[in-house]
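Regression test attached.
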Amino acid sequence: MSVHASTSPQTDDALPAWAFGLFLVSLALAWLGASALVGPQVLPGPIETFDRLWVMLSTERFEQHAWETFRAFIVALMIAVLLGIVLGVTLGAHRLSGDVAEPMLVALYSIPKVTLYPIILLLFGLGLSAKVAFGVIHGIIPICIFTMAAVRAVPRRYVRAAQAMRLSPREMFWKIYLPACIPEVFSGLRVGFSLTLLGTIIGEMFASQRGIGHLLHQAMENNNLLDITAMVLLLVTLAASVGFALLTIDRRLAARAPSA
Amino acid sequence: MSLVAKIRWAVIVGFLSFLELICRAGWVDGISLSPPTQIFLTALSILGTAEFYRDAGLTFSTVAGSIFAAVIFGFLMGMGLHRFPLVRRFLDPFLASYYSIPTFVFYPFFIVLFGLNRFPLMAIGFIFAVVAMAINTLSGLQRVPRVLMRSARVMRLSRWQTIRLVIMPSAAPYLFTGLKLSIVYSFIGVIAGEFILSGAGLGFQIAFSYNAFETSKMYGLMAILLTVVGSINLYIYAIERRIYSRRGGR
Amino acid sequence: MSNHVVFEGVTKRFSGRDGRPDIHALGPVSFTLQQGEFFSVVGPSGCGKSTLLDVMAGLSAPSEGVATFEGHPLKGTVPDGVGVVFQEDSSFPWLNVTENVSFHLRQMGLDEIEIRTRVEHAIAFMGLSAFSKAYPAELSGGMRQRVCIARTLVTRPRLILLDEPFGALDQQTRLLMGDELLRLWRETGATILLITHALDEASMLSDRIGVMSVRPGRFIDLVETGWPRNRTSEIVSDRRFGEITGRIWQHLRAESMSAMGTQAA
């Protein structure tokens, strides 16, 4: 299905740390070169950006904004993960519901969620709840879809083995379904993580006067390229670090999982 | 119609009826939500205006440009990633976090680069979609079964013949998925961009109606947009099923 | 009968990646395949049988020693006149049976009429006529393998290499496919190298059987069966079948046990 193919099988080993460091350095150099080429008014270079970011991070106001974003994001993530997994498990376990819901979920995933923003704003007003709602609607669908696929893909022979061992439904869930599903569910969580962060920040861009998203929006209105670059750098670093950590865990899980 | 399809229709009709009810009964104020029937009528009247077609033309042409560029560049990127595993291993964590970045923050950069026209929006759609195409192209290339490559060698096919006759057909389902996602993400990128940033196009009109409290018009536009995008997706889905149903699983 | 394939001291090593030690996969192997012979290779898992096939097919160059096919050295390019049937299904899922079978012929540039004649004959020979428009996904595993064999057949190869082609099939189907293979062998007059882990299959089908040791694989015995050319699977009732199979097993049992021992470590 369309959503799954967006995460490829991790067939590579991770790079050794020194090689990664080397690549980062060359990336920074390339950035420096590009900035020099088009001029710092068009693309601020790495040095000015780090400088600006350092200054921003040390202001208390910025800390408040960052904390605001973090709060909203964590709440949105927890809701998206919880609801997404519960929904996914239910739809995956119950064949008919799953069949009915699947194309509708894919359709929801495909529509530009911007078109739903006015509805969210009308429902939740401005403020924290709207931000959280934005985050949730972005992240919940892939988590649900991946979880549903994971539950459905549990090989029949595991279930039959469990039945032969006369496990109760609760034991089946914890000892058979859950371990078998974890790798695929985790892939869904990775995608959900990224998208929930995206949704939260977008929500802040126009549903709030606080948060990094709001700061970004301001910087965009004022054409403040340096601020934008600094915040993007912050976001990229954070998202890439967490993303990489999740990726490592995903690889370990995938390595342990039996091939179908 | 199968049972599953019937239930689906029942759910949709039930949901719409529910909305109709709560609006007409006054449980929800008219500003927040319009009844589906009114939305439908408003949508029809919008379709009769010249202004709509001007905006739709802008939006869809920008989306088309984004799709075109994303598919070509994404395909080349995917091939490059396949060819150079070192680059791929380096990019893994960045690709994993790519979709966390709200890509419209790059809009000001694109304005500086391209000027105040439709190209910055097209660029936003492009960078949203190109990664999906690249990842899926890569997937398709990685998943060509080794035994098919060995068969190509036994048949003494040249490099170009192998690419054209074995690798491409084998990877085709994944390339098609990349195309699908490129279409979806181009729509999302351009319309989101119009919504937040620009002064023209359907996305902008939706935001404008919202700000002007013309909620009926806003919902009408949203309904039209969703119908169009939904139909395109359904059409692609149908094509995919027809082409690939006999191939069985990948 | 002339020497069709000659191996002299052929060895194959794979360099270890990421600092792991090199793998000595095969050899040294020295033997000769006579033209038109049916030769089987049996041995424990991982002993290098498939590597032997790769070298013979020209898919892999020997690290040491010389391998020749029809007098020309094999150096990692596939020569003309060689057909390979792999262990996994290698049919192209996007083509139907007829298109699959005619695929290679089209690339070779034969004219339409010749292609159609050969393809129809091969499809009929392999019993696939009723499925000529079907896609591989619609066929069973055994039938897909038949498509692969048909695709190899049509090019009229002089040397046919088969790597455990019937591995995924049930015993009865295997025996029947064995008969088909013999029919194919007689009809084409090709030299056949069959890799199999089924001793009875090797005993019943072959003119000679090479028994391989554990990795790095070397031939520890070459058994001649002396079967008549027009044999079928019913040869299993011949008394010498038991003797031949027993002789193979005697070697293999010791090798397999030592292979299991090292694997368990």
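Expected vs. actual: identical. The CA atoms of residues 10 and 65 of chain C lie 4 Å apart.
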